[in-house]
Structure formats: structure tokens, C-alpha cells
Amino acid sequence: MVREPGLSVRLKLTLSYAGFLMLAGGLLLAVVWVFLLRYVPEDAFWSQSGFAPGRRDLERAFIPAASWALAFLLGFGLLGGWILAGRMLAPLDRITKATRIAAEGSLSHRIQLPGRRDEFRELADSFDAMLVRLEAHVAEQQRFAANASHELRTPLAITQTMLDVARNDPAHDSGELADRLYAVNARAISLTEALLLLSRADQRSFTREHVDLSLLVEEAAETLLPVAEKRGITIETVGDPALTVGSHALLQQLVMNLLENAIVHNAPKHGTVLLATATRRGWITLTVENTGETLNPHLVPTLTEPFQRGGERIRSDHAGVGLGLAIVKSITEAHDGTLTLTPGSTGGLMVTVELPAAAQQGTATPDPA
To answer: What's the chain's Rg over C-alpha atoms?
Structure first.
């Protein structure tokens, strides 16, 4: 926005200080003048103690002195106000410089304003916290763009390689080539759909309705039971009805992603997955806990970033596209909830999703797109 130049805040404060000082001085002199007039006669006269000046003599002596006093107050007010305003606005200048540096693209700069807490320091601390979150968000988006480009390029490169081999070897089995191309294409479609779902959750462009999370848990457990049995995993569901308000499709995807992730990243044999729902203090909770290898506590917070699969970029038939927990996080935040990941003491991972209970949200209303 283009604005016309105006007076600086420092100059405005200086004029305000000087004006207030002049007003206070003028009122004080007026009060003194009024009280003096009450005890001074109109003309001078001689008394036993000597010559007593009259009101006219007092005017000739008082008015020039009062004028000099007001002039001194004006100069003192301007000079003192300018100095005081500069000292008071020094933190604001520092914040402004930091803002300009951030606007130029340097998000690593911090104000770090010293001193005890006041309005300026609260503003500086809030700005520093915003820069921390913004820098982390930008770094995450950069990693996401790089990883997404890599993930999208991989199936295309594989497809091109297989087609080149088939073209150079006409005797190659076309049925086997078709099966491989189908698998690669299916992976690319899954990745694209996951990216679209992630974008949809981030934009909160969905209609809200009453959803019982416990029913979604039972449905997901029934759907993924064959996958769990194939891998020797036992699924157990417990808990009470957990009613919230949100998108049925997105919350169903959240539960499916959590259960599938708990099945895939589990112990190789005789693993277990526990899904529990509960309602307390206006919140509903969904807890998904599995067995498995011991996880690094420093690695766990990064699992919700897109394309993160534990410590390494695992490639297997069940590795997925690396967006499972990232989608869970986006869906949770889109429903004003919180997502907590806790490594198990003996291995595995416990994921807790907290969402506002339906009673706290009232009637269902469509969210603006």
C-alpha cells in the first residue's frame, strides 16, 4: 500500500510532550497569577513596612517572567520529549529493521529484544515466535516440494526404462511388462490422490456433520483385518462412542491411515495394534498403539512431515507413499484437534488424536471453501 509521507511517531510524541508541558506550565502560572491577584491591591501604596507594589507593578514584573518561563518550558519540552521519545521508540526501530530483513527473505534473523517484559518486548517475542514457525513451515514446504518432485519423477522414470527395454527387446514378455506398468501406474495414482487429499484437508474445504469415531474404528479394523492377518498382526479395538463434528470421509481416512501405518510398521511376527476411543472434558480421543522396533525420540516428531518413513526412505510393497501421517496431521488440524506421537518404551509408536466433542461444536454447518 502506497501512503503519503507524514510526521514520524517520534516527532508526534515530542510535540505531545512539549504541548502537555506547556499546558501544565500555563495552568500553573495562571493559578499563581489568580492567587496573587487576590492579595494585591489595585495601586501601589505606602504602609508601615514600606512601599507595597500594586497590581500594575505586579503585571509589569510577572508577565515577562512568565513568558520566559513558558519559552523555557517549550524548549525543554521539545528537547526532553525528543530524547525520551527516541529512548521509548528504540525497541520499535529494532523491530522495524527485523521486519524489513524478514520481508527481504531472511527468516533466520531474530529480534531478541533484551529487558523485562512490556508491550514492545511482547511484540518482539511474538514476532520472533512467528519467524520461528514461518521458517520451519518454509523449510517443510521446501522439503515437501523436493520430495514430491522425486516421488512423482520415480514412477515416470521407471515407466520410461521399462518401455525402452521392451522397445529394444521385441521378444520380451508383454504380459509381464503390462503387470509392472500397472503396478507403477497404480503407485503414481495413489501418490496423486494422497497429495489431493492433503491439499483438501489443508484448505478445510469440506462439509461438517456428526461423526462417531468409534464406528469408524470398527469399520477400519474390519476392512484391514485381512492385511493384518497376512502379516501376523492382531487388531484389538476398545472404547466408548466418541462423537465429533467434521468430515466423515476425511475422518475415515484418518483412522484408515493410522491403522494401516500401525500394521505396516509393526513387529515382523506376533505384533499387535490397539485402537481405543474415549470422551472426556469436551474432547474425544483416538489412541492407536502398536508394537515394533524402538524408535529414536528425536526422529518421532518428523514422522508427520510428508514423505518421511521412519529413519530411512524404505522401499517395499507396503511402504506407501510417505504421506500417511502427514495426511493424519492435516486432517486433525483441519478439525481443530491435536496430534501427539509418543515412542513406546519397549518399541512401537503410540499416536493420540484429540478432537473437540460434538457437544462443544453445536449444530453442523458447512465450512466456507
So the answer is: 37
In the chain, list all ranges with CATH 1.10.287: 123-202
| 231: Cβ contacts below 8 Å, ≥ 6 apart | 263, 264, 266, 271
Q: Where in the chain is the domain with CATH 3.30.565.10?
A: 204-361
Per residue in 164-212, pLDDT tens?
A: 777 777 766 677 777 777 777 776 777 677 667 666 666 676 778 899 9
CATH number for the domain whose boundaries are 204-361: 3.30.565.10
Q: What is the pLDDT of residues 51-93, one digit of tens each?
A: 555 566 666 777 788 888 888 888 888 888 888 888 877 788 8
pLDDT in tens, 219-235: 999 988 988 988 899 99
pTM of the model: 0.54
Q: Which CATH number fits domain 123-202: 1.10.600, 1.10.287, 3.30.450, 1.20.950?
A: 1.10.287
Cell of 180: 509392472
